[in-house]
Every structure is written in C-alpha cells, then in structure tokens.
Write a structure and sequence with these properties.
The chain has one helix and seven strands, in the order βββββββα. The protein is mainly β. Strands 1, 2, 3, 4, 5, 6 and 7 form a seven-stranded antiparallel sheet that branches.
Amino acid sequence: MEVSSGFPNVKGPVTIPAHTTATLLLDQSFLTNAYLTLALKGGKESTVVLTYAESLYDEEGAKDNRNEIEGKSIQGRQDSIFSDGSPHQVFTTLNWRTYRYLEVKVETKGEALVLEDIHGTFTGYPFEKKATFDAGSDEMDRILEIGLADGPPVCGGYLHGLPIL
C-alpha cells in the first residue's frame, strides 16, 4: 500500500490490495468536531473501521502527551463501513465526531479497495473572543488559550440549540 505524503490533505487515491489488512493513523494536530466523509470504490466485501479519539493511550491506559504516538494505541467511538464493491461509495456520519486522531483500518477480501477521499466537515458553536483577561501570568494566559481552543469542540453538544438570552 502506498500513501502519498500529502494524504489526506492532498486528494489522491490510496489502494489497499486484495487480501490485506492495513491501518492508517491520521493526526489532525488539534481537536475538532466534524462530520466525517469517506469516499471509496471497489473492495467488494471489504470492511473499513474508523476509530476516533482525542488522544492515544499508553500501556497502562493513561493519556499523557498527546503529541507522542510511539507505543500507544487508540480507543474510541467507531464507525464500520462494509463495501459493496461499487465504484462510487460515500459514507458520511449522521452526527459529528469529536477527535484529533482518526484510525482507518481496512481489511480487504478478494478485491482491492481504493480510498478516494477522507475529510471532515467542521461544526461547532461560533465562539468569539469579545473580552480580554490579563492576570499578569503566563500560566493563566496559557489556560485561557487552551480553554478558547477546546471550547467549541467540547461545548458544541451543550450549546447547540440553547437560546441566547
């Protein structure tokens, strides 16, 4: 299996040969809410399992440095797609997924499967920073920065549909 260096940011087919189990770990580098779309062709009776996670787990089951992947595994919500072998198959989640990491595990049978595209369509509460906060502390500035970055993905489910009074 060959994956172009720009995948998935640069569209290009990824072919998984027949009778193969292949795993791709994609790191978006930040947490997001998105409706995931996967386009594929061929691969009759193949399975694709998508696993979403905001972090990877070490051998003890702990999440620590989210930028390190060596010796870690993914655990999280999954979607399973079963290919019917047709040339234009598109899967889009019915609800958004919150993730930084996406594992794409493909198991093919007697026919190669082609991943034509994979992308997320962002959704989130439209936070706007309208005030300032200065505690005179680099640590407090960093906490605020993290809160503003994580706010839309973490709060989306609670804030959608709430009236603004």
